[in-house]
Design brief:
By secondary structure, the chain is mainly α. It has one domain (22-356). The chain has helices spanning 2-10, 22-50, 76-90, 96-122, 130-150, 173-195, 203-220, 223-228, 240-258, 267-284, 288-294, 296-315, 325-331, 336-356; strands at residues 159-161, 169-171. It has a two-stranded antiparallel ribbon with strand order 1-2. Strand 1 and strand 2 form a beta hairpin.
């Protein structure tokens, strides 16, 4: 939207062209999203407290979580409003990737909102049933996948890139690309959702991964940089750099209120939309495998639930004291802040390893 104003102002002073630069727009998008999150967050939390809209805590969870009952939830709305608002202000409306990402964040946010709303209405820890949630996620993902596939114009758009190797790519075709997109998006949205169980545990990995994807987007959208670093050139993907910056800013603003002890929880409206957004960005910049590596914490949390359920059905015994994995460590006596910071550190290490793939090719 701001680019339209810049085009108009440039007629009077060409110096306004500086606002066309990706780096400046990304910086401004991050700052606006950060300020929006901080300002909206305080107002939103006050309103939630006023209407007594709070978290319902499971009775079978760690006893330390019982004190969190009543803490305002659905804070993901703060992230979505500041993220989408800043992206639309500083993004290029002619770029198709902007609209795909905005649509993905919005539709998964709606699914999460419905789940959170039912929990509050029923005063229960159960919202949408697992079948209802999976069906809604699947329908949304199919729409997004079809949109992504229909936009595939270059060979790289339907290839699976193998990190750390220069010319090792797997051609998937349109159908294979659609199937891969489905599993990446559904898997990522659920993985972030499962991880969001401790104060600030999910949002910081989202911020770190967004920063890494921003770097990949900037490189893949710049012909000279991508050619020098032996990475595929993806026309238009540079705009994702601005969108990632807005996501980082909104996430940092939310973390101000979500850090331990949390004043607000993101709820499913935040976790489902953030997971899907990261997945769509990774698909656009063709870094699905690196998303799996960078999101190692999300993957571990998801696998712990799958393993726990499968093992219990077969043996009636549990491998973990409680799943997801962060609850297992709580049951072993580790303090919540220690678990959170260590998971952040693991994510940072995995992100740095993934960024090393830029030069190791």
């Amino acid at each position: 939207m701001f680019l339209l104003l810049i085009d108009f102002l440039t007629q009077f002073d060409p110096r306004f062209l500086v606002f066309n630069y990706l780096t400046l727009r990304a910086l401004m998008a991050m700052l606006i999203a950060l300020l929006g999150s901080l300002l909206l967050g305080r107002l939103f939390i006050t309103k939630l407290q006023q209407y007594q809209i709070g978290q319902i805590v499971r009775n079978d969870g760690p006893k330390s979580h019982l004190k969190k009952t009543g803490t305002p939830t659905m804070g993901g709305i703060i992230i979505l409003f500041s993220f989408i608002g800043s992206s639309l202000i500083w993004g290029d409306w002619d770029n198709i990737y902007l609209w795909i990402i905005m649509f993905s964040a919005t539709i998964f946010g709606v699914i999460g909102f419905a789940d959170d709303y039912l929990k509050i209405k029923r005063k229960s820890a159960h919202g949408l049933s697992s079948k209802q949630k999976y069906l809604a996620q699947s329908l949304a993902t199919i729409l997004i996948s079809v949109w992504l596939v229909s936009n595939a114009k270059n060979p790289v758009d339907t290839q699976l890139l193998i990190p750390f190797f220069k010319d090792w790519n797997i051609s998937l075709g349109l159908l294979g690309m659609g199937i891969l997109s489905y599993f990446v998006i559904v898997g990522s949205s659920n993985a972030v959702n499962l991880t969001d169980g401790l104060d600030g545990l999910a949002i910081m990995p989202v911020i770190l991964i967004s920063a890494a994807l921003a770097i990949f987007a900037y490189i893949s959208g710049h012909y000279n940089f991508s050619d020098y670093l032996y990475m595929p050139f993806i026309p238009g993907s540079g705009e994702v750099f601005v969108i990632c910056a807005a996501l980082i800013g909104s996430g940092l603003g939310f973390l101000w209120f979500n850090t331990y002890p949390a004043e607000v929880f993101m709820g499913d409206v935040g976790s489902l939309s953030l997971g899907a957004t990261l997945a769509v960005i990774a698909i656009i910049v063709r870094q699905e495998i690196l998303l799996f590596i960078m999101g190692g914490v999300f993957v571990a949390e998801t696998l712990s639930v799958i393993i726990q359920v499968a093992y219990y059905k077969c043996t009636q015994k549990r491998i973990f004291l409680m799943a997801p994995l962060h609850h297992h460590f709580e049951k072993r006596g580790l303090s919540e802040p220690k678990i959170i910071v260590r998971f952040w550190m693991i994510t940072l290490i995995l992100v740095l390893i993934s960024l090393a793939s830029i030069k190791i090719r």
